[in-house]
Amino acid sequence: MRTARAVDYVVSSPARKLDIREANEARILRAAEKTFALHGFRGATTEGIASEAGLPKANVHYYFKTKANLYRQVLKGILQDWMEAAAAFEADEDPERALTMYITAKMQFSRQRPYGSRVWASEIMRGAPVMERFLGTTLKAWVNARVRTIRSWISAGKIRAVDPESLLYMIWAATQHYADFERQIAILNGGSQFDEQEYREKVEQVVRLILGSVGLDAKEGVRTRETASV
After folding, report:
1. Are residues 187 and 133 in the same domain?
2. Which of 84, 85, 87, 74 is nearest to 118 (CA)?
3. 166 and 230 together in one domain
4. Are residues 26 and 105 in the same domain?
5. What pLDDT was estimated at residue 58?
6. Of 65, 88, 103, which residue constitutes the final position of a domain?
């Protein structure tokens, strides 16, 4: 029996350690996302990030070594999540469905992770000092692939002839506005943020407007609930 328990411990211990590491890294990344958004890179401290995460400062340095590396990982994670939101471009040949899913996913990100969007906006407005190379390689390749998909829709007569890059930029601007200008929107909404139903209605409006720009008429009552929970 002792031998069996020892084997169980040896087998399960690395898995538990991995789970703890992943959980701690995720907590630190979310805390850093918020701290960088509120204070900028220069104003943020690893001590403040640790406090926000509810972990010792030593954990931040153990997992990410430096503030600069943590900032870089936050930015890469944001961009990766945004790129993954466009999976429908590869999986669906129907532009109405693919665009609806992508726009809805982007709006969901703005609703659930507004700090992430703001960190990204701040980095770009500062001239992308950390992400410039990443933008010119990884993001450029990603955009080129989506441009080819959009052009295939145009060639097949599925959507109106538009500039593919401009369509992507419009989607980014419209969806990320709800995160980057969240406070302005709240003030214009009588001082309160949108509740779940109000936000869902905004998602549907954004979907309709963008689909309309490429000659697609969104079906009455666009079903965003099935593609994302906002």
Report:
1. yes
2. 74
3. yes
4. no
5. 96
6. 65
CA 69 to each of CA 6, 65, 218: distance values in angstroms, whole numbers, following the listed order: 38, 7, 43
20/130 same-domain check: no
- The pTM score is 0.83
Give the whole-angstrom CA distance, residue 120 versus residue 180: 10
Give the pLDDT confidence of 88-115 residue by residue, as tens digits.
Answer: 777 678 999 999 999 999 999 999 999 9
The reply to whether 2 and 101 lie within a common domain is: no
User: Measured between alpha carbons, how far is residue 149 from residues 56, 173, 206 in Å?
Assistant: 47, 20, 21
Residues 58 and 121 in one domain: no
100 touches 227 (CB < 8 A): yes
The torsion angle over the Cα atoms of residues 120, 40, 28 and 71, rounded to 10 degrees, is 60
**Cα(192)–Cα(168) distance, integer angstroms:** 30
Neighbours of 168 (CB within 10 A): 17
Is the pLDDT reported for residue 180 higher than 60?
A: yes
The tens digit of pLDDT for each residue in 4-30 reads: 333 333 344 555 666 888 999 999 999
Lookup: tokens for 139: 């993001």
Instruction: For residue 226, give the DSSP letter.
Output: T
How many separate domains does the chain show? 2
Question: 61 lies in which domain range?
Answer: 1-65
Contacts for 195 with CB less than 8 Å, ≥ 6 apart: none
Cα 100 off chain centre by: 16
